[in-house]
Model the fold of this input.
Amino acid sequence: MLYVNLNGELLDRNNASIDIEDRGYQFGDGVYEVIRVYNGKLFTGNEHLNRLWSSAASIGITIPYTKQELQQQLIELVEKNRLMTGTIYLQFTRGISPRKHPFPGDDVTPTFVAYTKEVGRPTAKLENGVKAMVTEDIRWLRCDIKSLNLLGNLLANQKAAEAGCDEAVLHRDGIVTEGSHSNISIVKDGIIQTHPANNFILNGISRQVMLEICNREGIQVVEEPFSLEALAQADEIFLTGTTVEVMPVVELEAKMIAGGRPGTITQRLQTLFKAEIEKQCGAV
Ligand code: PSZ
Done:
């Protein structure tokens, strides 16, 4: 049996239901997080909860728990589902209210849902890399908020899937922002480059772990926008994300990158990222 947490209550997944007038369902009016679990432990749980609070505050949703209370509920959910390696999905919507654009009053409380999923580490892809294609970033101008509205991301990712690719790399007027569901970095002459954390990208927790590793290890990194040309001419390309960790891109727009194999700096980051996981969660 799979348990879900609905508004603080652990329920059988089959007995959990959402009101059709929930603003998450009707408007995508809410925020979410995906947290990685290794060996039954949350990886960078605090960082995800901090981002959740900041996303919620950005759209005027007050989360009706303390961070500690929420973390405890997530731990209980993981234990109840005996999850070892996987993800926790959690979201807060603005709550249930007749469909009207203005926010409802304070009497309407946010709807909280969390559930778990078994997801292994993508070991073959981490070893061999993935294919990516390029498409226009048609999303809104607050991509820093982890909002439920993902149509722009979905349309881009569907294009990638139809092209036999794992990820769509998004660009605004020739400037690369991020992937449809990952952050992207390039390596040129030993220097890593990634888009700065502003309103055009989600400041990925994995991106932040990668940056911290670089600072600690003295690996050169710059947070500056780069062009599609720089992307095409990169020595190495890699994605970062909660489930993909540090994922090499070995083919871009059907052209080989780094000889079609994960590059040396990417591989070094993969090793250091895994060490970070193991420090928090034990051997993976
Ligand atoms: O399971 C999956 O496929 C996941 S779990 C998280 C993501 C995908 N994506 C997160 C994400 C994103 O949606 C966008 C638009 N940019 C960057 C990221 C990476 O964020 P973190 O590292 O926090 O997961």
About this structure: The pocket of PSZ is lined by residues 34, 87, 153, 178, 181-183, 202, 204-207, 240-243 (CB under 6 Å). The chain has a mean pLDDT of 98. The longest helix spans residues 264-281.
